[in-house]
Amino acid sequence: MGISRILSIRGIAAVFGLLVVSVAAYGFAAANVVPETGTGDGADTISGYTVAAVTYALEDGDSDPSTIDKVTFDLDATAGAGLPTDVQAQIVNGGTWYDCTTVDGTLPATYDCAVSPSVDVSTADQLRVVAAE
Predict the structure, then answer these.
(1) 47 and 18: one domain?
(2) What is the pTM for the complete model shown?
(3) Does the N-terminal peptide bond of residue 65 adopt cis geometry, omega within 30 degrees of 0?
(4) In the prediction, which pLDDT does 49 show?
(5) Are residues 110 and 63 located together in one domain of the fold?
(6) Pair 15, 50 in one domain
(7) Which of helix, strand or coil describes residue 21?
(8) Looking at the structure, do residues 25 and 70 belong to the same domain, yes or no?
(9) How far apart are the C-alpha atoms of 88 and 51, rounded to whole Å?
(10) How far apart are CA 26 and CA 31, in angstroms?
(11) Distance CA 86, CA 3 (A)
(12) Residue 74's domain spans which residues?
């Protein structure tokens, strides 16, 4: 009877110890809060930013007017995101990513993306924008 009593006490202590460790781990996990930032990627509404007022500039003059040489659009923050510092656009699925710049400095901001080399209008099949603070 003495050994079973010791095993019983050890078993209860082990279960109690596991319970304490589990509660502590849950408390630490609940304290992990990641602050919201403005990063998004998508072909539709982008989380963190909305894209509007999209325009495509075609080459003119002596160049081929059936090619795109610039994309311009407005970005505005959703859910408190700030002005993005890294913005890129893609107009052909799986194609080249083009760097975009702004001179506005405040949201909503207009971004210009130089498309170089130019892309034939017939191959442009999407506008994908990736923006990050």
Answers:
(1) no
(2) 0.62
(3) no
(4) 87
(5) yes
(6) no
(7) helix
(8) no
(9) 12
(10) 9
(11) 68
(12) 39-132
Contacts of 126 (CB under 8 A, 6+ apart): 43, 90, 91, 92, 93
> 14 forms bridges with which residues in the sheet?
none
DSSP state of 36: P
* Amino acid code (one letter) for 123: T
Q: Indicate if the pLDDT at residue 14 is higher than 90.
A: no
Q: Tell me how far apart the alpha carbons of residues 10 and 3 are, in angstroms, rounded to a whole number.
A: 11
Q: Which tens digits make up the pLDDT trace of 16-72?
A: 777 766 666 666 555 556 666 676 666 555 468 889 999 999 887 656 778 999 999
| Residue 98 contacts residue 114 (beta carbons within 8 Å) | yes
Phi, psi for 86 (deg, rounded to 5): -130, 110
Total structural domains within the chain: 2
Residue 96: CB atoms within 10 A of its CB come to 13
Alpha carbon distance 111, 63 (integer Å)? 24
Shared domain for 85 and 115, answered yes or no, is: yes
User: How many angstroms separate the CA atoms of 46 and 17, rounded?
Assistant: 46
> pLDDT, tens digit, for every residue of 67-95?
999 999 999 988 778 888 899 999 999 99
Q: In this predicted structure, what is the pLDDT of residue 77? A: 86
